[in-house]
Write a structure and sequence with these properties.
CATH superfamily of the largest domain: ATP-grasp fold, B domain
Shape: globular
CATH class of the largest domain: Alpha Beta
Helix content: 25-40%
Mean pLDDT: 89
Strand content: 15-25%
Oligomer: single chain
Largest sheet: 7 strands, mixed
Radius of gyration: 23 Å
Distance between the termini: 55 Å
Structural class: alpha+beta
Strand order of the largest sheet: 6-5-4-3-2-1-7
Low-confidence stretches: 274-281
């Protein structure tokens, strides 16, 4: 393929998020999977402080272990312009009186971001303003799915089962923790799980057996988020995960059962136990999940239904809690930008990582083409009317 026909893909990762490190590893996997004969890859790294950088050193995982990374590796400051005139990145000049900014257009952006400031609709909003196609869910789906409290409300509306839960703000907790604990005891009961509403990777998640433990763990969770979710713990349940892929015609992957030696999958178990794809360490898994065919189909159908309910597109991993003997299924959460892009699940479906990222980019471009069918430029006679008669009397 000639360089003129190649697509330029910006891979965006890092960001001001407690899931920063996971994002770096996911981005490395994505960049390795992108076929260089078809794509020119531009790494776009957001530091923990929010500085945007680009440079060839970002292709090397070892770079991120160095001090003063930007100075050591010759990184350049860069921004994604919100102007549709640019549709790409602007690299700021390093120095010199006559130095000029450099514009590089992007055909598509591949967010490899997890958590705050990236998976929550913020970056998606920037890319919508810029008119640049991007991989994954749109603004609304990203924001809603990232907020566990709002997600459960939408799932309930669509009759998708979730565990009994309660959401509250950090302000409510700090103002009267006793009243919140009383409400928890009356509506949820123990044991229960405490979770920051908008984080993933099990960060800030804890299991409380009583009010004293709940108080301690809620105080911790309140450091990570301004909204907290508590939900009833489901004893003797297994976790089952399913990936989905598509925009309008959505398909479900084979199911997996992560194996935990704790009461729930910790950050360390998810990423730092056994060797996973492309060098990422991850939890031990049973693929396909050792459950009945009937239960497998129900979970796959619920995953597709939930994806449609939040107006998802691209891909996601949908996580469930299951009691097989009772036939009970509860949707736990949805990840619109799952770690490793769920490569390991799609590989069981015969798709290589390269095929997965190809399909993600195709779906992104299709979604952008669909967006362009919408009318945004609509002129009326209001301005001429206001100019002739003045602003007085104009209805607002």
């Amino acid at each position: 393929m000639s360089s003129a026909s190649k697509k330029t893909v910006g891979v965006l990762f890092g960001s001001r998020s407690v899931e920063h490190d996971v994002s770096i590893v996911t981005a490395q996997q994505v960049m390795q999977a992108l076929d260089r004969s078809r794509y020119d890859v531009v790494p776009l790294y957001i530091t923990r402080e929010g500085r945007w950088l680009t440079g060839p050193g970002l292709f090397d995982l070892k770079t991120f272990q160095a001090d003063n990374m930007a100075e050591m590796m010759g990184m350049k400051d860069v921004i994604i312009s919100p102007s549709t005139e640019h549709r790409g990145i602007i690299t700021t000049p390093v120095s010199g009186l006559f130095a000029r900014s450099r514009l590089q257009r992007l055909d598509v952006v591949f967010p490899a971001l997890h958590g705050s400031h990236g998976e929550d609709g913020t970056v998606q909003g920037l890319l919508e303003l810029a008119g640049i196609p991007y991989v994954g869910a749109g603004v609304m789906a990203s924001a809603v799915v990232r907020d566990k409290i709002m997600l459960k409300r939408i799932l309930a509306y669509h009759d998708i089962p979730t565990l009994k839960h309660l959401g509250f703000t950090r302000h409510a907790w700090m103002s009267d923790s006793g009243a919140v604990l009383q409400q928890i005891d009356g509506e949820i009961g123990y044991p229960l799980f405490i979770k920051p509403a908008s984080l993933g990777s099990s960060i800030g998640v804890a299991r409380a057996a009583n009010a004293d433990e709940a108080r301690n763990y809620i105080n911790i969770a309140a450091n990570f988020d301004r909204r907290i979710l508590v939900e009833r713990a489901l004893d003797n349940a297994i976790e089952i995960n399913c990936a989905v892929m598509g925009n309008y015609e959505v398909r479900a992957s084979v199911l997996e059962q992560p194996v935990s030696w704790q009461e729930f999958l910790t950050y360390e178990e998810k990423y730092m136990r056994s060797e996973g794809p492309a060098g990422m360490k991850g939890a031990e898994r049973k693929i396909p999940a050792p459950i009945s065919e009937e239960l497998t189909q129900r979970i796959q159908q619920l995953a597709v239904k939930a994806f449609a309910a939040v107006d998802g597109r691209g891909t996601a991993r949908v996580d469930f809690l299951v009691k097989e003997q009772e036939g009970e299924i509860f949707l736990n959460e949805i990840n619109t930008l799952p770690g490793s892009m769920a490569f390991y699940l799609w590989q069981e479906e015969g798709m290589s990582p390269a095929a997965v990222v190809d399909e993600m980019i195709r779906l992104a471009l299709d979604a952008h083409t669909d967006k362009r069918k919408t009318t945004y430029n609509y002129k009326t006679g209001l301005l001429a009317h206001a100019a002739a008669r003045g602003l007085k009397g104009i209805k607002k």
